[in-house]
Amino acid sequence: MASEFGAVLRRLRDRAGLTQEELERRSGVSVSTIRGLETGKRSNPRMSTVEQLADGLALRPEQREELLIAAGLLDPLRPRPAVSDPPVSDPPAADTARPVPEQPEPADDPAADPTAEQLAKLVAARWQREEEQRQVQDPFPLPVRWQTASDALTDHWSNILRLPPKVKADPLDLDGRLDEITDVYRRIPSGRLVVLGRSGSGKTILALRFVLDHLATRKQTEPVPVIFSIGAWNPTAITLRDWLAAQLTRDHPGYAARGPDGESLASQLVESGRILPVLDGFDEIAAGLRRPALEAINATTLPLVLTSRPAEYAAAVAETDVLTSAAAIELTDLTLDDLDDYLPRTTRKSGRANPAANAWEPVLAALREQSPHRQASPLAAVLATPLMVALARTIYSDTPEHDPASLLDDERFASPEELEDHLLDNFIPTVYRRRLPQSQGAAPHSAIAPERARRWLGHLAHHLSRLETPDLAWWRLGSSLRRSTRTLVTVLVTGLVIGLVDGAVGLAFNGVLAGAILDATAVGLLSGVLFGLAHWLTFTVKNVPVTPAIVRLRIRGRPGALQWRAGPRLVIGTSGGALFGFGYGFVVGIISSYAWHAGPSTALHIALIDGIFFGLVFGGAAGLTFCLLGLLETPLDISSVVNPRSLLHTNRRAVTTQLLVWAPAFGTIVGGGAGAAAGLLQGLLGPLIWDSTSGLVLGIISGLGGALGYTLTLTAWGQWAVLTRIWLPLTGRLPWAVMAFLEDAYQRGVLRQAGAVYQFRHARLQHHLAGIHRTRVSRRFHRSSLASGTRVRPKA
Known about the structure:
Elements: H1 2-16, H2 20-27, H3 31-39, H4 47-57, H5 61-70, H6 114-133, E1 145-148, H7 157-160, E2 176-177, H8 181-186, E3 192-196, H9 203-216, E4 224-229, H10 240-251, H11 265-271, E5 275-280, H12 290-298, E6 304-308, H13 310-319, E7 327-331, H14 336-342, H15 360-368, H16 378-382, H17 386-397, H18 416-433, H19 450-467, H20 483-510, H21 513-540, E8 551-553, H22 566-595, H23 600-632, E9 633-635, H24 644-680, H25 692-714, H26 716-730, H27 738-747, E10 751-754, E11 757-760, H28 763-787
Parallel strand pairs: 3-6, 3-7, 4-5, 5-6
Antiparallel strand pairs: 1-2, 1-7, 8-9, 10-11
Helix pairs in contact: 1-3, 1-5, 2-4, 4-5, 6-9, 10-11, 17-18, 18-19, 19-28, 20-21, 20-25, 20-26, 21-22, 21-25, 22-23, 23-24, 24-25, 25-26
């Protein structure tokens, strides 16, 4: 049926005079999907896809029937399912659902996509744990409410309601509260919603609750809602769909596996409309990128939910246009009644002389009794957002020795901004003075001084501010260093490690300390420089991080299906190995000539011969070893649950397996290949002196040194070990147990998990800590400059 459907679709599209790109804009089906269906590369189109195409082509009933029959979704001997166009006479009422009523699924509808269903289970489990970690339900969710946003930030209601031309559109009343967000979304026919709210108003919690409620009531034919922190997206560098697929692969590496059509499972889910993107944090996109970001989103017809602060979204709208076909809601402030219901129930009874007493009641009573002629207390304005209420609860409700009545001091806190800074300043000391509960069988939590925690968290917050991203990825922590520093540290550590290995092996076989030290020095320097050069050319010049591998190695059994091409690996491995081998052989030739007291011309001749010889040996060995690693690669299981720690452990296991494969394979090929090459090139390059002992020593050194050099410079785990576990703690920027510190911060509520990365619990906290860090660094620099007698000129 696939080829028949493609021919029918292409004929109907040509008759409508539409290009594939125009049909994408009208139907919401991606160009790659349309192209695949028309060429026959994609088979078994879903009912929803066929109906989207039919709507985009504005087909008559008989043409719809023809398209459904060609897709194999309708028996030509039975009446077609009801897919008639919506009526044009009576517009829908404001409280109705979609103007086109849902049709019952046909009996022959294809089975649900198993990859999408597995993803739905993973997403539900992840955000359920995250909601528990954030104590959203303790003792009950704050009453987040919203109202329909202004018309200036909303598209035409006829577009939102998907009405035909000349049909009157009555706006929908979208006002609601937290537990109604899924119902409100499903009343929007276009499937596009913008959630606006000022900083700390609960946008992220609303997105989390939307995902969980939507999954709880989702049909198998509906897309899977997935939260994406859009602040990390650069719309000028990558398209929205490609970025969504990349983020999905980052958080679920198993979806990097290739499907029958050669595309990754993540790309297939995005392209086929099986993902409902929840784009959280539009305001966190760099200011200069918000307009192209909004334009790029408008270039698609994806149903989605977008959250943003009102001012940033309004500024982007003023530069281009509203989000096409999107309704908008705006979160409202909490009221004193909300605080009366919530805060008294959060106080701890233990540790109080009178357990029935409540520290918040006099505070709330004072806020109610304020004279209408006086200026409102800053506390009333601050406690209008869930973020500040959560901080106040942490500092005053969960810590009995703190009295919230101090927050009413208008002389100490003259403005809401001063009071907010006070809550942000005291949040870190409060949570780090608290003892975390000990899990059975887990390592005990080490006490961390609040000031040290604040310094390390400030470095991390400043690092994220420089990268202009909310995502705290363990493989990017080394990017907080300058490029030159990263390269120099990589060169030094790699050279030192390989030099020590070379010296130990040489001393064990030859027993000559001076010769072992000389050879180790030469090999260490050369290896460090060449591996550092490879790292610099591959990552530093492009300013891209070394990303974690999305595959694992399977030594036993046949690896899973993975499209793999030996050509690129063979070229890269052979080129890199030949370059290293020539450099190593040239240095060995110069050293040998010096020991033999040879003249300059003879020394150069010997060095060139040794360079060519070792270049051929190392080039062939590296190319074959790279190919062997490729043959053993297999994608991760799509059911695997990924968080920052598990992804780090997965990459460590993958690198360990690579070491176990690389070292013996590379060493054996180098040692054996050198002997074979010496015999083949004996007459061509001149008299070559080689024996089995030399081959064994070279094989051991090459296997261990090559594997370690590759690991430290070209893998995410190796760079993590060199920069994040050694250099950053050595310079005091981070603790020695970095991952344990991040996990501890997550348990204390300072960080949150978003798939494979951490994020600060709120962007406001991140910016506050980054500002403190910059102030501290500036003061330290100023003091050191004064101590050295250097005049400090402040920046303009």
